[in-house]
Amino acid sequence: MDAVDHNSFGATVTADKTITCKAAVAWGPGEPLVIQDVRVAAPQKMEVRIKILFTSICHTDLGAWKGENEAQRAYPRILGHEAAGIVESVGEGVEDIRKGDRVIPIFQGECGNCSCCKNQKTNLCLKFGVNPLKSVMLNDGKTRFSTKDGSPIFHFLNTSTFSEYTVVDSACVVKIDSDAPLEKMSLLSCGVSTGVGAAWNVADVQPGSSVAIFGLGAVGLAVAEGARVRGASKIIGVDINPTKFAKGRAVGITDFINPEDLEVPVHEKIGGMTEGGVDYSFECAGNLQVLREAFLSTHMGWGLTVLLGIHPSPMLLPLHPMEMFNGRQIIGSVFGGFKGKTQLPRFAQQCMCGTLNLDEFITHELPFDQINKAFQLLVDGKSLRCLLQL
Length: 390
Fold this sequence. Notes:
It catalyses: a primary alcohol + NAD(+) = an aldehyde + NADH + H(+); a secondary alcohol + NAD(+) = a ketone + NADH + H(+). Residues 218-337 form the Alcohol dehydrogenase-like C-terminal domain. Its cofactor is Zn(2+). 21% of the residues lie in helices and 22% in strands. By secondary structure, the chain is an alpha/beta fold. It folds into two domains: 19-189 and 358-389, Alpha-Beta Complex (Quinone Oxidoreductase, Chain A, domain 1); 195-334, Rossmann fold (3-Layer(aba) Sandwich), CATH 3.40.50. Strands 3, 4, 5, 8, 9, 16 and 17 form a seven-stranded mixed β-sheet that branches. Helix 3 (191-202) crosses helix 4 (218-229). The model is unreliable at 1-13 (pLDDT under 50).
């Protein structure tokens, strides 16, 4: 075994050897994750091996764990896609990332060379975009994870962060400032970037405007934080869980609606509160009927609805074509419109400077071996982000 180096977080550098470490493995839909030894192969060409120091759980992980989407049923699998860590080693051809760099893995990659990456109108990537069907590495169609007997363990959303070490395509690794607090930066892998970016990059919320947010999980509250920073004058939060309202006030939500308390549709209530509807609405619940209410809650003539929720159902949008002739628009948003490798480092700097308050999103902290407890907190609606330290 080659000599090892140690940094302040205890990550080890083992040259290009296979590493044996702990990971939380999903063996079947809804089954408790199993903390076990796994083997993590060395990174191949244009790949990076990362020592994960902090990871958290979002509803996409929860949905995959439950097996809600047929495309996400590859087992055994290492889930997780929100994390931060330190580069342990890099494969051939990687030039922008070095051993020892502080990084965050991202599920929506940026190769820099495809037609989408070269187009400023989109943050999609033809090679490394989010793809729930993908469960192996692009290089050779194989996994970098295996059990002690050599059986493959599949990847998840380009990242697989529920492991002490993971191998990620370099297009899905973002280098951040060496002084960045990694426990907070992990939030930028998904939830905070997705929500704030939807407000900033996709909707381009303007000062003095009105906003309605449907679903006050971490993504919805991140939308609120982004709208607050942009100077929105009215931010309406819609959720059936009233415990979310206190946290909502901390990120700038001015009004709250619990649909279960209403005798009229939500869009009618919002229309009465805003002289005809809000300028922007954001659907963060992954529910088609909620999407319809969000769409109708915007003002005719210019209202914009941004779709962020994950909809695993094959059902189509509940909109009549003629409703699109009233001037309302609807658009989908992936990763908040951020081009990860080129735009996320600056966003991280803004967070470090206090532009946004990331502390509000971390509601619980647990050691990694209590990951099943962290999942239950999310299932019970008691947590936004439970930070797991590896």
